[in-house]
Amino acid sequence: MTRLHSRSVARLEGRVAVPGDKSISHRALMLAALATGESRIAGLLESEDVMATAAALRAMGVEIEKRGEDAWRVHGVGVGGLASPADVIDCGNSGTTARLLMGLLASQPLHAVLSGDASLRRRPMGRVMRPLAEFGAVFEARDGEYLPLLVRGTAAPLAVDYRLPVASAQVKSAILLAALNTPGTTMVREPVPARDHSERMLAAAGAAIDVATEDGERLIRVSGERELAPLDLGVPGDISSAAFPIVAALLAPAGHVRIVDVGVNPTRTGLLDALAAMGAEIVVSNRREAGGEPVADLEIAGGQALHGTDFDPALAPRMIDEYPVLFVAAACAEGASRFSGLSELRVKESDRIATMAAGLAAAGVRVEEQADGLVIEGCGGPVPGGARVATRLDHRIAMAFLVLGLCAREPVAIDDARPIATSFPGFVALMNRLGARIAAH
Ligand code: S3P
């Protein structure tokens, strides 16, 4: 275990770029694996989660290599061209790897066993197994829906018409990936839109995909058994990683931070709206398109007074991974913040409602845990701190509490920093370059 702590700062200052978007990186590797020909991916996130996807695809016969500083090459095997892996696939901590791979496997006559770390083995897979079973895939999972899990894909997949019962981009994407090797037209109905990177990338690869609105729902149609063209893609910075320096910069008493080349896909920018509702001013500049995704620079001045508020649960699908660090902002804001409609947070890398409530309380913040949310009494400035927090194999919990320590009277320590490498290698160095004081404990 690597223990780290952080202590209060007077200012954060500088210009940084965060690593590539995790969601886009997983999808880029998977679609490139199915393309006919060689894809080139720049800016790929080289984190443990994404490398778990790369290793899984290699085990299924795809050649993936890094050439030079920042260019990954993927030799696609074509839709339907994957091979059964010779060993158990270790998805590590990565729900996206497990769930999207299940989609890839479902519509080919493949046999694979997926497993992962203790966190991933606690996460529900039934939400993906149910729609994929309608294609004809067969699953055998521990206790009905947990890893380790055996997938037997089908040689004769049937197109499905599926309405998503939870707003989940992983479930949606698993179905869209299964649809690629399925004759006929698969339909996914999305009452509440989740991140749309898969749809954008499929369109860019020339898939037969159509997105429309019908009766107030998003309706995505994919006609399968079409060739995919290789990708030539630059991955934008991950707004879910940028979230940590954004909140840290806002909470610092002074300074100015610019984060360049951040993906600002509207299905991902809920945090900016949530912080604006707390009174934060974040300047979004230099807007442009890159690889079919909107990208921009974000500027944050320090010393901003944030106030608590009642957060609209409708924001959740657009910022589901950003709640841990938003809770930190709420802890340092003036007044109470109320969060509801967040039961999905209980099935992330950890139970993020319980883990955050415990850590905030340990750091002296008044917090009330509810079934689907939290009420946080903001300290109107630095929190007491002086706590050691259990991060429960959850990268975003680890980073959120290191941000809290920057705005605490006594240092905040975390018990295990290793999970940070699943999504944000270089987090500590980047934060310290801005002036943070994060060090070994
Ligand atoms: C992701 C979707 C979200 C998110 C996860 C990445 C994706 O999960 O929490 O970190 O890449 O599709 P859900 O689909 O379960 O909401």
Structural features:
alpha+beta, four-stranded mixed β-sheet, 441 residues, UDP-n-acetylglucosamine1-carboxyvinyl-transferase, Chain, 12 helices, binds shikimate-3-phosphate
Brief overview:
With 441 residues, the protein is an alpha+beta fold.
Structure characterization notes:
The protein is globular. The protein is 29% helix and 32% strand. The N and C termini lie close together (11 Å). A 4-stranded mixed β-sheet has the order 21-22-1-23. α7 packs parallel to α11 (395-405) and α9 (323-332) runs parallel beside α11. It is α+β, with helices and mostly antiparallel strands. It has 2 domains: 4-20 and 236-440, Enolpyruvate transferase domain (UDP-n-acetylglucosamine1-carboxyvinyl-transferase, Chain), CATH 3.65.10.10; 22-222, Enolpyruvate transferase domain (UDP-n-acetylglucosamine1-carboxyvinyl-transferase, Chain, Alpha-beta prism). The protein has 12 helices and 23 strands. Bound molecules: shikimate-3-phosphate (S3P).
Domain count: the total is: 2
CATH class of the largest domain: Alpha Beta
Helix proportion: 25-40%
How many angstroms does the end-to-end distance come to? 11 Å
Q: What fold name stands as the CATH topology of the largest domain?
A: UDP-n-acetylglucosamine1-carboxyvinyl-transferase, Chain
Principal-axis shape: globular
Query: Which runs of at least 5 residues are low in confidence (pLDDT < 50)?
Result: none
Question: What is the percentage of strand-forming residues?
Answer: 25-35%
Return the CATH architecture of the largest domain. Alpha-beta prism
The residue-averaged pLDDT reads 98
For the biggest β-sheet, the strand order reads: 21-22-1-23
Strand runs, count = 23
Instruction: Give the helix/strand class.
Output: alpha+beta
Question: What's the CATH H-level homologous superfamily of the largest domain?
Answer: Enolpyruvate transferase domain
**In DSSP terms, counting alpha (H) and pi (I) runs of 4 or more, how many helices?**
12
Radius of gyration: 21 Å
Major sheet summary line: 4 strands, mixed
Cofactors, ions, other ligands: shikimate-3-phosphate
